[in-house]
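Q: Entry one of two.
A:
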Amino acid sequence: MDQTQRQPRRMGWRFVFLALLMAVAISGLVRSLWLDVYYIPSESMEPALEGGDRILVSRTDFHSDPIRRGDIVVFDGRGTFAPLNSGRGPLADSMASAGQWLGLAGSDTTYVKRVIGLPGDRVVCCDTTGHVTVNGEPLEEPYVYSGDAPSKQAFSVIVPEGRLWLLGDHRSLSADSRSLLGAPGGGMVPVDRVIGRPVQIIWPLDRFAAVPRPAAAGTTTENGQ
């Protein structure tokens, strides 16, 4: 093979390599600013989201319409639900991040839960009818997993400014704000740790569907939201 034949092949491989780099860069930009993909590793949000689902998460939905009660949120749990440092080392962290970025594995630090209490809310379990109450008003929670009680664990909390009280829909299987009542921060997640809102189940194909945003949960008396 002479030099003139080798040169077009090299040019072709360079073009493919550059095209791949561009695709990765564009994908990274889209996922960091608008839409990201996350893997649901557990059953804690059934029936809305099942273990093994891959979901599209909008990073911008809450910019124009702030978080409200009843919203499902994806959030960074480091410092609340998870340690700030994994302790596994940079190589293991990089490999785990790659699997998460590709949507092949769940994250040890990213969680999906439902917003029950906003800043200033008093959230209590439970009233005489077995309902969770927010500022004295019982919540109707049609999203709770069939057969589960709203909570078998009693609690009474006031959500601080800039924080959220979060529960899973499959209450009997969910590790959520209730699990951290005795920990620093009391299970309250900072609002600025919220990554976005699930908008679409993209895998498996037989579950391909939009994730609708529900009406705000409950009517309250203290902060009027």
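Q: Entry two of two.
A:
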Amino acid sequence: MKSKDGSATAIVATLLVVAVIVWQMAAQSNLINGQLLGSPAGIYKSAVIGLSQGQLLYDTWVTLVETLLGLLLGSGLGIALGLALWFYPRTSAIVEQFSILLNSIPKIALGPLIIIWFGSGMVSKIWLAGISTFAVAIISSCAAAQEVDKDLLNLFKSFKAQRAKVFKKLILPASVP
């Protein structure tokens, strides 16, 4: 529990420093494989070299772009499909269950398949990021579209509003949050 004097923060910081020191000592004394698990000193050295050569910042930028493109692609398609499924309630139930199944697969397990299919370049990284967000976006947008206030929905129906108009004027705005 956090106290007013910040003692919890100090304890966490101390534990973190101790963990890094123990890790470095274990790597130096060969208690752990430093080649496999690295060491804090080795990581620091690599970071300094990467920063001085400019490669670390470039690689970070490329990774950020790939991640954001995958996020936009996966989320955008997932949200669009999830909201479109409002028009097809029976199909929605099936797709939502499939999405839950897809979401339960560890995304890192799909990595080798994606690399085989798309190579090891930018496209495979965008696919992996997109798949990671796609299922969650479908599930969330489907749920948001189905949880629209039933009284408002009945009001639109009582005025004989077309489904497209109900979607545009009620479902879509109510699903935004």
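A: Comment on entry two: The chain is about 80% helix and 0% strand. The CA atoms of residues 34 and 51 lie 22 Å apart.
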